[in-house]
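Task: encode each sequence below as structure tokens.

Item 1
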Amino acid sequence: MSNYTILLSKKAEKQLDKLPKNIAISIIEGISLLETDSRPNGCKKLKGRDGFRIRVGDYRIIYEIYDDELIIDVITLGHRKDIYQ
């Protein structure tokens, strides 16, 4: 299986910068795992919008997969109470 390239949107970068350091580190680890497995156990296809989501504790990472180009585009991330609004 080929490795994917991870791209973070400007919005995702800003949200990551606002998080406490310990939470940001665990989210970065979760994102880096997507390089080798774009659809890990526990990922879900979103309804009502394009993309997938994975859980990292109480936080969610929403991303789109472009299989033909081997790119994962992280659209947004945040706490589960805020992320779907």
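Item 2
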Amino acid sequence: MKTFAKAAAIRALRTVAQTGAAVIGTSALIRDVDWAAVVSASLLAGILSLLTSVATGLPEAERHA
């Protein structure tokens, strides 16, 4: 279970970072970034990543079990 939790957390954090970068990238200038949208979309993506990991499992966690 510890391996699964660690793998799921790593995957979720990567998803959060990727989503944040994508949302920031849609702005022409850094001062135009809607930071509330960045945080909201990133957190939602992280939660969805965790739920997906629980629902479908993680191959990397199963290899080390």
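Check on item 2: The helical segments are 2-25, 35-56, 59-63. The chain has a mean pLDDT of 88.
End of task.
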